[in-house]
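Provenance and format

Records in this collection were gathered into a single text stream. Each protein contributes a sequence line and a C-alpha cell line. The two records reproduced below are adjacent in the stream.
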Amino acid sequence: MRSRTPDRLCAEAVELAREAAAQAAHPHRLGEHLGMVAEGERLVTHFFASEVPGYSGWRWGVTVARASRARYVTVDEVALTPGPEALLAPDWVPWSERLRPGDLGPGDLLPAEEDDPRLEPGFLAEDAPPPNSPLAEEAERPERGTVRDVASDLFLGRNRVLSLQGLREAAERWDEQFGAETPMAQAAPAACVSCGFLVPLAGSLRQAFGVCGNEFSPADGRVVSLAYGCGAHSEAAESPKHQAPPPPVIDDLGTDPL
C-alpha cells in the first residue's frame, strides 16, 4: 500500500534518479523531471520525460529506496513506462478472432477447434476409437463389408459435419452475397430456381441454394439463392432474329449531273 507522505530523503534524491535515468536512456536525451510518487515506506519513484523516438508520452521511472535508519538513498529500479497520454499498442487479439475471409493463402493451415459450434459429430463419430489408442491404427484399415467400410466407399465417413448453427451461418452468408435482396436480383427477369444453368446442391440446403454454372453470370461458380437472379437467365429472352436489309431505293426520275 502506497504511503501518502513520501520519505524526505528519497523525495530529495532527484539528481541521483536523474543520473540513473540518463544512463538507461543513453544514447537518447533525457527530458525534464515530471514529478514523483510514494510507492511505500521509504520508497519513491521519480519520473522523467522520455525522448526515445517512437515512445510518445512515455517516461523514465526511477525508484529509489532508503533502508531503515540509513542516511543515504540507493537506486532500486529504472524502467521506461507509459504515461497517462502514452502511445500504446492496441490490445492483443487472438489470431482466431483476427482472421477474416480471404486471409487463408497457399500452404496455410486452419484447423477447426474441437468445440467449434459450426460442426457436430458425423453418424460414425461415436464409433471412432480415441486418438492414439491401440485401436486407432486398426480402425484405419476397416474390414470389408462393415458399416464403416461401406460408408467410406460412399464418402460418408466424415467425423464431423455442419451443425444447425453452421448451416444457418452459411445460408445467411450466401444469401447476403447472392440473395433475393441484392440489386442484381431485383432487376433480374426471373429467379435462379427456373434457370437451366443452376446446379442443385445436395442435402438440406438443396431447398434454398444451388451453384451457378453460367460463365457469363456474375455468380458463375458461386452458391446462389434460388430466389437470386441475373440478366443471364436461361429463359430471360430470345435472341433477336436476323432481319434482311430493305431493298435499295433507286431514283429514276431525276438526272445525274455529268
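Adjacent record:
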Amino acid sequence: MKLLRFGPKGHEKPGLLDADGVIRDLSAHVPDIDGPHLGRDRLTVLAGLDPNRLPAVAADTRLGPCVGRVGKFIGIGLNYSDHAAETGAEVPAEPVVFNKWTSAICGPDDDVILPRGSRKTDWEVELGVVIGKAGRHIDEAEAMDHVAGYCVVNDVSEREYQLERSGTWDKGKGCDTFGPLGPWLVTPDEVADPHQLAMWLEVDGHRYQDGSSRTMVFRIPFLISYLSRFMSLQPGDVISTGTPPGVGMGQQPPVYLKPGQRMRLGIEGLGEQCQSVVADEPG
C-alpha cells in the first residue's frame, strides 16, 4: 500500500493511493496514519479494503507529511560511503546519530523556508524508515519486523549552523520545514529490497544527486538494532538513513540554496517531492 495524509496543514486526513494514482479517503476506517495505527494487524485490515469503494479525493489536494504525530525524527549522518568521500570524511566506525526536531516536519511539496541569516542551506535525498512496532534492544535478525514502511525524506541542512557554530549537528538539521516527508508511506510488501533503490535530487532542473541505497554503510536492520540500544523505538518514529553523494557542500565550489529555487527529488518506488525555496519573513 501507499498510505498518505491529505488536506490543510494541521488538519490532514488519512488516505491511500490506488493503483490508478487516485487518492482515496480512509477516514471511515482509520483516524490517522500515525503511530497507534501502524501495527501489522491494522495495516493488514487496511490492505483488505477495496479502494474503489473509498471516496476519491481531488488530484490537486495538498499532501501532508505521510506520518502524523511523529514521536522521534532520527537522522543518520555519513551513512553512504560515496557521500562520506565527497565531504572528505572517513566512514564512521559506528553510526552518527542526530535529531531532526519534529517541528521540522512538513508535507512533500510544502515550501522550504531558509532560516534568517542562512548562507549554506543544503539538500539531501534520504530513505526514511517508519517504525510500526515498539521495541528496545531489538535483535538485528528481527529488526525488519518493526518496520511499518518507507518514505522519501529531504534532510534539509544548514551547514554553517551544523558544522561551524560548535556543539552538535542538531541546530543545523531541525529548522522549521527542514524535514519534508512523503508523498507516501509505502508498506514493506511493495519494496523488494530497500538497499537497492535509485535515489535522485535536482535543483532548478539540474541533477545533483543520482545514487542508490546500495552504497549505504550501516543497513536498516543494523540501524534499528543499534538505535534501540540507546532509546526505545516507538510506532511512528522516523529514521532518516543518510544520503548518497551530490549534496551542495560537496560541489566544487560548494553550491547552496537560494530563494526562488525549486528542489525535485525522489526514490525508486517511493514517489517524488517538489519544494520551492523561500526566504523567512519577519514577523
